[in-house]
Structure formats: structure tokens, C-alpha cells
Model the fold of this input.
Amino acid sequence: MRANLHDFRPILSKALDGCDWWGIREYRETTQFRMARNGQNAKNETSFDHGVMVEAMVAGKIGYGATNELTSDGIERACQKAKTNAHLSALSSLFTFDPSIRPKAVGNYHSKFEKPLEELAPGLVQERLMKTTKMMAADEAVIEASAYVMITETQINYLSSNGSDWSQTFHMVTKDLSATAKKGEITQNRSLGMQGRQWGAESLEESQLLKESERIVREVHQLLVADDCPTEKMDMILSPDQLYLQVHESIGHPLELDRILGDERNYAGWSFVGPEDFGSLRYGPDILNVTFDPGLPGEMASYQFDDNGVPATKEFLIENGILKNGIGGIESQKRSGLGGVSCARATSWNRPAIDRMGNINIEPGESSMDDMIKSTENGVLMQTNRSWSIDDYRNKFQFGCEYGHLIKDGEIKGVVKNPNYRSSTVPFWNSLSHVGNGETFEIWGSPYCGKGEPNQVIRVGHAIPTCKFENIEVFGGA
Amino acid sequence: MNSVKWEESFKKASELLFSNLKEGESLNLNFDGEETTFLRLNNAKIRQASTVEQGSLELELHLGQKKADFGVPLTLNQLQNEEVLKEALANLQKEVRSLPDDPFISPLTNEGTSRTVLEGELPDGESFIKAVVKETLGADLAGYLTTGQNYRANANSLGQHHWFSSDSFFFDYSLYTAKEKAVKGSYAGSHYKESELIDSLDDSIRALEVMDRDQVELKPGAYKCYLAPSALNEIAGLLGWSALSGGSYKRGDCPLADLYEGKQSFNSEVTIQENFNLGLSPRFNEWGEVSKEVLPLIEQGKMKELFVSRETANEYGLTSNQASSSEGPRALEILPGNLKREDILKEIGTGLYLSNLHYLNWSDKNKGRITGMTRFGCLWIENGEVVGPIKDLRFDETLYHIFGSGLKALTDFSEVMMETGTYSGRSLGGAKLPGMVVEGFKFTL
Done:
């Protein structure tokens, strides 16, 4: 539909007359998913999603009504449902807000990119994926080679009764390459690791895909003949393609204010962090600095406003090892009295905004990769996540990786398969001994962070250097 | 109720699209729709109340050995639908001609027609929240009510047509003590009765009393455990992650490959099947193929069959069993055993009563090893008596131990658990599961 959100303003004004405040968030998104397997075309799926969420505040309670029928009747029905839900909330409401939780915001944001996504014609993308997987599948040990790309263009438009009028356009690409190889009874997998960023057609350069494929095949061969990762307490170096998920699960989620306030207890979980911990909890050593940074170009959750229209700025969550701020939007900040960030976001038009991670990053430190390896007497370097699990308070976790290297007496030795580790959050981060410098710093991100009732996924970014941890419980396969 | 209007929208969309196909093209359509109200609660009060009216239609266009898909919104407004659908079909017709061949395409077939309409009585928000507030006075409750109509349909240009609609609700919640110990509760169905909601809340409030006892902190190690049906449901959910998939097996990614190849076995008491008689989800898949009412997967501890979709069948020369493209369960059932409810604590003796597990994942996929956490309502039992709630533990154990060498008993009762997932839209389906006692269940942290 070509309807302009402004065209609906008279309907909204009339239907929501008498409300303290109202807003409408339009979400228009096209996603292409293309996949090749073993040199063959496998999937070409495009989805177009377009709808609106109407928010109506009545006596300090917000009700929500969502529809993808973008007609006068459809918008009118959504308005009535939003009002009904606001009145329903008044029967037993958790908190009474006021219109200050939806500040006036005006502006535009657009993802930065080198080459426009329009250069990625369906046939061209599929051809590159087929070529990539054909190269991997040509190896006699490889029993399955796959490659996929997800190209997403999202536009969010927002209007409100107090003059907000903003628009944000995001161009995102998520990709992965994978090879599974078998030798005798041993089966191993090596992949790129799901890589999501705001970027353009430069994300799918053929030469880069082929170079990564060569590495993946080489490394899966190494895994087929590698020893299992040893089971013992040892030092551990985590590369960014594993550490980003460690940050996500054991720093990002426990700092979410809606978890601390108990909203998520029935599903995603609570948090070991309490309100009293902000400003005092030593999360890690002085070298640990974690930021919420919506301004780093290329990260998946870079944006100008959150879905409540609050301008997004860089803030320290953990500074010199001490917990400073939570990941909570303006509603959670009002409810808790704690500091937060601009992070209230919804998965799409059909869900209310809740507290979400945006870009949660570790600021680069001083150590080179060489420093970290040379300082390790007995350890393992782990790359690329393949398994993750953590408790509902975000304490006890266990992660598994695809690929490991033993380190002995300051030198990298052989490859090990099935590297895993387990620990608890605060002791783990306090075992951090080295934070990698800018040369080890990489941007990673995922479109699949799940949370909320009703359930929502959201895109998150994590820009992370390689880091070293001491005396961690490491183990191998079954 | 707009069920008739949605059915009409789907029918008109099908007619419009099929009449605009070009020479050699065939088209498969899948519709998902819902009108749902969500009441999200914290501290037994409303945190967010929202209502969603949405429909989406997926077009799968075939042209010889080429295929492409396009998903678009479908609404109750025919003018909007017409504009969106015509543009989508034109895009799809252009794209499909630009793509390379797909060697494993299965041509569309006409698998017949069906129509299922499951009507119910749904709660209204006002009386529901008043009942919750009254019954949980002073209690700390978090969770959400999901209530409304769900629609699913399939049709193709060869004349196939299926329609499924259901009225259903679930109230998925947890209750907390002052010491942050919790129990999980659920009230779900298609015919809401306030008295049943109150019974569910009362049961949960009673179960919470034992959680107020002193916490027991256990060391990592192997313990005898009772997994309640709701705990087993988490493990059953993980089976949907490629463990029962024929395609995953062929791709070297099936955690139960050793079971399939006969190198491992489960306890002979274990029988696992897909059972559509549970009535929780439509029997037709995204190609309109209608599954058998009952499909045995594991019988008396031996793998009998993996899920095989038409795509996998075509690629690997197997026979399809009308599985969905994800080759996961839609209506999983594990058959019960002989352990009576009143004998559970005696059977545990000294060990753990686990009501719920959390955040499961494969820890060594090739070997069928899983990890996860204990969560709500987990208790330490000594000599058949409840001592108190435990401090949460991490487990790391193989499916071969859980369903094989470690399995001591299955309960003689089962519970039906409705799918409560609501990512992008409401999920359908569920599982019917007993409880089970496992010896030597390993905890690591």
C-alpha cells in the first residue's frame, strides 16, 4: 500500500480524541532469504511485512492496537482496540505514566553503506552462493556445504499527538557459510558464524566469500583429525565470533531493566543484578569497559531514536569494571528510578516496545593478539559459537565452540575439536586478564535475540575485541 | 468472530492469484492469520495490553525446475489485498525466471480439501483480570494471557484447498515467594471457565508454600531425578531441533543418528509418536499434504522413522511421510508407563523433583548430549519426603542416558501442553507427555 502515515492523522485525532497522548508506529520491511547447498540453488524466499501499531494513553495507562489493514477502517479498529486496552489496564495497572515518556522527536536515520543493496539482484546472489558452496562441496570429506544470505530493508515511520515525526531506514545483511565433513565415525562442522550488520552490497563480494570458503574447508579438515579439547581448568582466549555471544548473554541480558523489574520472570528470566548494584558492583577488572553505542556505523542496532522516540546516545554500562547503567528505556527508568539508555524497541509493527539490547560493545583495550598468546602457559583459543545456555538469572552458563587451538608455553600448538567451557557470570568476568586492542576488534551481530511476552525477536550488534580469561573450566566432547 | 470473513479473504485471494498465472506456472498458497489479545502481567497487574489483527499469505510459485516464494500481508480489505497481491505475483513471476534451476523441486499435487473449524468460548479481558486480582491478592504473579482466533489455510492452483480455524487461549504464569522461589502454572484450552482459572491459581498458590522452605544447595554430581511432564516438554522441544529430521540425518546433523543406525537404543519402555488426534494443530503441512493420524517415530526404544518432507524425499530418494519442511514434531506424544502419581516421591527416594527446565541446547550434538538449567518448582527429596527448593543447577547429559540406561520409570498419566510460542504470530501445536524418573542424571555447575 502506498498510504502515507500523515494521511491517517485526521482519523487518529478523531478516534483518539480525549486521550492523554497517542502515537502510531508504521513498520515496513522486505526480507530476502537466499540459500544454496552443495553447489545447487536451494531457497529464494522474499517476505514483505507492513503494518501499524497504535498507542493510546488514557489516564496514564497505555493501550496498544495493531493491524496490517492500512485503510481508514483498519486504523479506526486499531485505535478502538488501543483505547479499550488502555481502559482495561486501568483496572489493575502496574504503573501510571504521563506523556513525558513519549518525548517529541523529529528527524531521519539511514544506514551507511558503500554499495546499494539494489546491486544484489536475486539471480546474482544465488549464483554467488552456488559458486561458494560448489567450491566447498568439491572437497571429498565435505558431506554438506551451505551458504545463506538474508537481505533486509526496514523503514520505521512514527507520528504522535505531541508532534513527533521521524523516520528510520535500515539496510541489513546477515550471512553464513558452513561445511560439514565426515571421516569414519567423526563428523565436524565449521562455519563463518552468523554475521549480521548494517551494510550494503559490499557484504557479498564474491572474492571474499570464496576466501572464507577456502578457510572453512581447511579448518573442518583439521577438526576431523584433531584431538578433543582437554578437560581441565586453564586459560582461555575468546575471539570476537564467540565473545560477542558471551557478552550478549552474561552482560546484555542481566542488565536489562525490565528483567530486573520482573517483567520477564515468566519467560526469559530475572537477573542476578539488583537495583542496589548500580554504581557499586565490580563486574570485572578495571580493563573492562562496556558501552551501549547506537552510533557505531555498521553495527546491527545503530539507530537515531528508539521506538519510544527517545534520542539514542552512547553510554557506559560498565566503566573500569564497575556497573554504571542498565539497559532500560524511558518507561523502565521511570518505574525503577534507575539510569538507562534509549533501548525500547519492538520486533515489528505488531508488538509493543520493550527493553532490548542495542549495540552492546566492549571497548578495545591495550593487548595485541601476540601479547595474549605469549602470556599463556596452558590454555586454549576458541572460535565461533556453536552452543549456548545460561540460567534465568544469567549466572551459570555453558558455551561450546566450533574450533580451538591449544596454547602451550606462549605458543599456539595443534587444533582441538569440541572446545567448551562453563562458569558463572561475575567470577568469569573478573577472571578477565587481557582486552584486545583495535586490531582484534570486530563487529558481530544477530537478528535473533528472543524475549518478551508476547514473544519478540530483535536485531542486536556487538563490537568486540579478542579477550583472555584465566583459570576457566574447559572441556571437550562426550 | 471474523472467521468467515478471513476465509472469504483467503478464497478471493486464491482466485485472484490463480487467474493471473502464466503458461507453465503453478502456485501454492499458505495463509496464517489471527486476532489475538495479549494481557501481560507483572506483580499480578497489567504491564502491557495489546490486540493484534494480522494475516499473511505466502506465495510459492513453480515454473518448471524453478521456484520462488513471496510473503505478503493479507487483510479483511479486498481492495488492499488486490493491490498487494497483484504486485507480489508480478515480482515473483519476474524473479522466478531470473533464477537458476533447483534440481530438487517437487511438483505441486492436489492432495484434496479439508475444513476444520474449532469454536470455543474465550475469556473477556475485564472479567479475567478481575478474577486474577481477586485470587492472587498479595501474591506475586508474572505471565500473560493470550486469547483469540487462529487461522491457517493452504490452497494450490491444482485445486487443493484446506482451511483450519480455532478459538483458543492460554494463561501462562508463574508465582513467586519473597525469597524469589517460583512455581509455574498454566491454564489453557478452547472453552474458558472462570472456575477453572481459579482452580489453577489455587493449585499454584498451594504449590508455592513448599517453595518457602529453606533453599537446598547441592554440589554438582549425579542424582536420581523425576522429570515432570512440563520438564520433559523442554527436552521434547529440543527433539525438534533436527533430532528427528531425515534431512538432518543425511546432512550429518542429526543428534540421534546413532539411534537411527542402531548403534544406540532407548529403554524399551520408550515409544514416541506424532499424534494428530491431540487436535492441537492442522494435519496438513505447507504443501497441503495430510499426515497420518498417528506416525510412530520411536517404538519400544528403537528408532522406527524420521520425519521426511517431500523436499528431503526428492533430494535423497526417500519416501515422504508428509512432514513439514522443518521436519520437526507438530503433535508429539511420548506414551506413558506404569508409575502412579502417588508413588513418585517414593520412587525418587532421595533425589530431585524437577518441575521445569530452562534454556536447553546441544552440548555435543553428534553424541546427543544436551545441557540446560533447572528452573521453576525444583525440589530436593530425601527418603520420599520433600525437603525444600534447590538452588538452580546446570545439567549436561545425553539423550541416550535420559531415555536409555538411566530411565527407571514413566508415569501412568500424561499431560497435554499447548504450544505457547508467539514469535511474530501465535504458534499452534503441543505435546502429550508423561513424567519420568531417571537415575544418575548428571549436574555440572
In short: Chain B has two domains: 3-206, 221-443.
